[in-house]
Amino acid sequence: MLRHCTIQEMLDVRDGEGSVAALRHLDECDQCRQELERAHQRVAALKALPSLRPPRNRWSAVRDLVDAERRQSRWIRSGWLSLAAAAVAVFLVGTDGVFQTGADEEDARAAELQALVDHVEELDEALGVVRTRTRAVNGLTALTIADLEDQIALVDSRIDLARQMSLSREDVTNLWRQRVALTNALVSTHVRQVSSVGF
Amino acid sequence: MTFAALDDVAIARAKAGDLAALERLYRAYEGMVYTLARRMCRSAEDAEDVLQETFFQVCRSIKSFRGTGGGSLTAWVKRIAASKALMRVRYAKYRETDELHEETDAGVHDGDVGLGLDLEAALARLSDTSRAVVWLHDVEGYTHEEIAELMGKSVSFSKSQLSRAHARLRRMLGEESVC
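The joint structure predicted for all components is written out below.
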């Protein structure tokens, strides 16, 4: 090789993947050997950079998220479904005289909330099934799945918080709408992945 | 606390969801995760977010961790951290800035010549993508295949980012070159 090695060729040599021509050139060229040595030194210097400590303790924030998620999963199984079912029962019975002004709107909101909670439950079941069928996941899909799962966990913790703080039904409904959208996206991602590997 | 402080019993307790064991795991790995995140991300705030997201994911997923011993746990935690950091590189607020960096990366950075920066400052001046690749490959020991998989890109993309990173580092550090 009549010319000097490119950086790419040198890095290939360093990684044990160098071409015969590049290796032969390095044998004969002092300048390129020095350049390769500098590349080694750069990497050694990178490895020698000091370890860093996080400026703040993030464990309490992590633990709060974990606690919230655990409470949420318990709550989904028991509390909220009963509450929502009761609201729908009131809607169905339609007790005269109890809700006069705005009763229809209130009942419609309760029904929508119940529908959203039911939808999430169905989607979670579908997710359980499709997850077992998702085998090979490429890097980008794995990132997308992890991102969606994180967002779902955050929404779940907000729903839990909303329940504890007795937020308005509208606020809670909005959170469940987000939960439906995110879970839908997660199921779709898994389904696409299963389809793409020809399951 | 070192990685070795986490024996199989501690790992088993963490897998069972024991919060005290999970906190031990956090204490053992927070420095490693934060260092990786801080080297890959542009800001300390982003690195802290990556730290939190990584351990939330670890706590949620550790039941599915199939390895045994501290070594494989370290690799597993590191991989989650790398994914979270790369997600930030890909999707976060620096997206537009990074695209600008990528554009300029294709050419020669005349302004880099003779800067004589120290290595940390030079590393910080790389594009987010190049910095992530050089750190994962040269320091953490990931192969180009692994980086390509994590980033959803090709092996040649990873190689070219590494090559660009070294070219810029060399100029910024004031090293003379023949290439």
